[in-house]
Amino acid sequence: MITLTSPWQAYAAQTPHKDDGPHSPPARFEWGTHRWTGPGNDAFGRDLCRRTVLELGCGAGHNAAYLADQAGAHVTAVDMIDLQIRRARSYYEHISRLTLFTCEAMRFLRYGTDVYDAVYSVFGAVGLIDPAILLPAIHARLNRHRPLVFSVPHPARSAHRRASDLPQTTFLTFPDGTRRALPRWELDLSKWSTVLARSGFRLSQSWELHNPAKPAVPTTLLINARRL
Ligand SMILES: C[S@@+](CC[C@H](N)C(=O)[O-])C[C@H]1O[C@@H](n2cnc3c(N)ncnc32)[C@H](O)[C@@H]1O
Questions:
Q1: Relative to the CA of 62, which ligand 1 atom is closest?
Q2: How remote is the CA of residue 125 from the centroid of ligand 1, in Å?
Q3: pTM surpassing 0.85?
Q4: Where are the chain's structural domains?
Q5: CATH class of the domain whose range is 24-156+186-227
Q6: pLDDT, tens digit, for every residue of 15-41?
Q7: Which of 70, 154, 156, 179 is the right S-S partner for 171, CB 3.0 to 4.6 Å?
Q8: Are strands 52-56 and 74-79 parallel, antiparallel or unpaired?
């Protein structure tokens, strides 16, 4: 399988994991690199209770578990790496409103038929797939006037980065210190606004999240866009 050669497979394999049975979901929804920073699930701008929500690139499923258990949403969460989904199931399978699938995001969007009340990504598929392809596919699976919310590494997180429409080579650093190249779309807010508008979304709100110890440099760009 092509995903076995993806840097995300090595990332999953190296991420520390305790095979210790069911976990309680986290106490808060996290969008950034530092806990207890950012708006939590208020970033959706609406109550998600009994709403259907899709996560693209859920990793071990912590945020999806939070939304299903604490916010009362019916959450479908996908990740293309089977190891991540097996891990998410071992932690959170007991949560009744949570469904986890191993599936690449574009494949899930193109071949499924359900339409959702919210779609989100936390350093997941948004930013890792060409927005000109991904955003129209999300648009087709999101109800009108409902939010797409996503966080991406902030394009100004290091001095030598430049926002660009073209994919940039970034590096994924693993726990053992090795790195693998990873193409990423590094758009600034104005460029996101433009590509969102081209695909039938209006940018509604944005946030810059920071490392509290280095508040001068933003780490994360968080965007709420409404499907028109
Ligand atoms: C940095 S991790 C974030 C995981 C999770 N959202 C979190 O905040 O803990 C990125 C995840 O996106 C997944 N991913 C990357 N590209 C994807 C794609 N095209 N389709 C589905 N999942 C993808 C990776 O396997 C990885 O688990």
A1: 9
A2: 6
A3: yes
A4: 24-156+186-227
A5: alpha beta
A6: 888 888 899 999 999 999 999 889 999
A7: 179
A8: parallel
